[in-house]
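re: ur question from earlier - yeah i can do the single chain one, its not a big deal. heres the input i used so u can compare w yours
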Amino acid sequence: MTKAPGAAKAAWAAPGLSRAERVIRFVESLTITSGAHAGRKFLLRPWQRTIVEAWYATGEDGRRPVRTGLMTLGRKNGKTSLCAALALAHLVGPEVERRGQIIGAAKDREQASYVFDEIVAFILDNPAFVERTNIQRHAKIIEDLVSGTKFIATSSDAAKAHGKGGSVIIIDELGQWGSSPAGRDLFTALTTSTGARDQPLTFIISTQTPDEHSVMSEQVAYAKEVLEGRIVDPTFSAHIFEVPMEADVWDEANWYAANPGLGDFRSLEEMRTFAARAKHIPAQVAVFRAYYLNQPVRADLHWLSVPIWDEGAVLDGPPERGRKCYGGLDLASKSDLTALALWFPNDDGTWDLHFDVWAPEGKIAERTDRVPYRQWVKDGWLHATPGDSTDYGFIEKRIYDVMTAYNLVELGVDPWNARDLNTRLLGNSVPVVEVGQTLANLTTPSKAFETMILTRALRHEGSPLVRWCIGNAVAMIDANENIKPDKRRSPDKIDPVSAAITGLSRALVLENVGASVYEQRGVLAI
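and the output i got, formated as tokens:
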């Protein structure tokens, strides 16, 4: 390695230090230049030290086995500063090598500037670094005049990346690269450019992404296999900070799982403020979960338009008795919402849609401080069942009442958790049809549902509970534009939406609506 001028006097050059200790000493010699801690030395927190120690650990031969370091966490936890500090360690510090190439890659030029600008700020704060470097701001290149090593910021032009032979690759916000060929090509070009280097190192630093087919999702999935011991790979060191999908997202105790810097350099007050606002604005819940809690939910695409849905709220009550209808039932779990949707075809090609929704009394009490369940019960939009779990006997009785009041042609039911109820219904002559919740089964009715909303071909009673679920709905969309509602990634409950689409799947078939129209028109981004 090439030593910097005066390196013998530097704290990180003291004899007897391990490789990781030299990097830590170097990082902690830097001065923070912005934020609440500006002007202070860069003191690594224990969680940061753990990561650096893992990435720069060595064997008995002094060589570093780790070739890829992955860190995923919520935003505003100091990842840019840490990346810049480590990049600088390879540019002018203990990890510098002769004519090395440190490549900072991001989705676009603006994102690529973040790490570059942070490195420049560190350099300008240190006269010794200023003396030995040449900063080319327009080209986004920093050259170390002593070793010939360069830091190069690049964006999603994979063709340019093929000519680079990186010794260190820093991939910033890989989750934003998506699953496009351009993003995958750039990732491949960069990570395969290190073959000529002795001990190359790739850092992947990003929040997660809901795109299951993206490079980031692949890397996180691999990381979890390694962390759980199902794959043995000493060259891959991963650190995943996330709030589990099943956790209560409003419980502050859970926030720290995705935000190791929370209450330190990551503002707890700001996070509380955003969370309080998000509770009352469903569209912000997904943003909170994606960017604050590092959950793989879609923060930028809400599937259905609430304002257009509101235009269909023209029915004064349930449809008149005797009408033909098709049903969809979503039982969810006994501690959750259960929904029954009834579709009534009209002679003019429009549809009337009625909902019944149930929740156990115990869960209503838990949710009332966040969502107005109690008011919805009072207003008749939600039915309470006794205890802490939904008594399916209430749902079964309602279905028999529907059979008496209307001409129920078919009842589509999600088979999950419904086998016993289905058996009883069939035994009592209810025309139950199981509808598996797959893309193949739900794409056509899902597209039809959104088209009906957009074309004002759907009328309903204006339930605020259903309106809330419409706003929560996030769709799973694959590369072929197959689509269905995605409960796991939706920020909160969407059971009435699922029930409606399950019922519509049967109505379209039996009414011969012309489902191929919906299959051909493509996915609408609303």
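Residues 1-8, 514-526 have pLDDT under 50 and may be disordered. not sure if urs matches, ping me
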